[in-house]
Amino acid sequence: MKLHILGTAAQLPTRTRNQNAYLLEWFHEGILFDPGEGTQRQFILAGISPGKVHRIFISHFHGDHCLGLPGMMQRLSLMEVPQTVKIYFPVEGQPYFDALSIASKYTHRIKFEIHPLKAGIVEETDTYRIEAFSLKHSTPVLGYRFVQKSQWRFNQTLLDAYDLDGPRVGELEKNGVIMHHGKQLIREKLSYQTPEKIFSYVLDTGMCETIPPLIQDADCVLMEATYLHTEQALADEFMHMTAEQAARYAGDNRVKKLVLTHYSERYKDLNLYEKAVEKIFKNTHIAHDFDIVNI
Ligand SMILES: [Zn+2]
Ligand SMILES: [Zn+2]
Hints:
By secondary structure, the protein is an alpha/beta fold. 24% of the residues lie in helices and 30% in strands.
């Protein structure tokens, strides 16, 4: 998994920070989160084709999280991308989605699949699970948890030692047990389990009880940190997080890497963020536009 940071501003963009947009490379798909204004251009500046997007997840319908949606939908249509583009958002936001999706005249040339969501499991297969969690904000918000499930993989050294290859490996995988050169071979004894990989997306929210289950044991959490502790009163009033609160959540929930974003325009110098969290949660990445985070 790889996360491309395409914008890190909250409501007001600055000279160096565009509104939100994040692209997650997930299996062979591109997953775009919260395309704010200017997202299409951020793709170009990052050197990424907008055509890579397979799914779009909207956390909520404040403008900094969705005003780039019409541009992205129209761009994907113009490019006539072969994939069906799936779009997910909190069900309460349907009127805003409807308005954005016909914001200007254009010719639909591709298929969009629309998924209004409530909290719960969004999709589950043998290899992954996507879950949505309700967060606490001035409008309904969903946070998203992407889990790559643990998989069995054959140990190549053991396969070589038993002189096992080609279709016989397929048989062992399918049946669990085979006889080979007079020996009984058991799938689990020749395999190991890859660890689960988890990415959590947490924008925008104040502190709430759904954050721990949303982020626990995650390899990477992208979390909003609109304010620093000095503006705690504003964070409480507008239901946002401070960098210090985000860092404490990460530390309390066995998160491996925390990535902060969605900064108020009042903070010109992001070194203030580095200083605010360095003693609370060491493995914090203060995101800048166009950073790439390996997960
Ligand atoms: Zn926002
Ligand atoms: Zn918001």
